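Q: What would this chain look like folded?
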Amino acid sequence: MNHCRLTICSLLLALAWGSTSLAQGGAGDVPPPSSMFEAFDQYGNISWEDEQARLDNFAISLGMTPNWIADIIVYAGRRACTGEGQRRAMRMKEYLVKHRGVDWGRVMWRDAGHLENTYVQLALMPRGLLAPLPVPLSRTLTAKQIRIINCKSKKQRRRER
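A: My prediction, written as structure tokens:
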């Protein structure tokens, strides 16, 4: 009985000491509300205006955690333009850097392949770590399952003539 009380008291003391040390640390030492490998946000194919609003929220959270980095993971859909995932991720990084003032070195992106539908995951990560891909590689589509479409604008097609 005495041993149980001693163990419980030790645990409570350790928890109390740990919470005070976290409270005394700087804003960059406190992890964001989500766990290290949980997405900050995730969504499918949305308009650029809606995506900008989500990126604005992402930039605000990134600003509150100065020792963390942004990780953008993009999957193109089954029917996609050549390099669609890469272009979308680069556009998102450019927006965060140029319009939201995030340091270029704090934003990384990955083109994770193709899924049935477009999918984007935004994560905040400690520097030096990578979030695991949100979808296992076994669920991504193979080259035979993907349909690459002609996505050139009318203006680009006229120039080629």
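The two ends are 88 Å apart (CA to CA).
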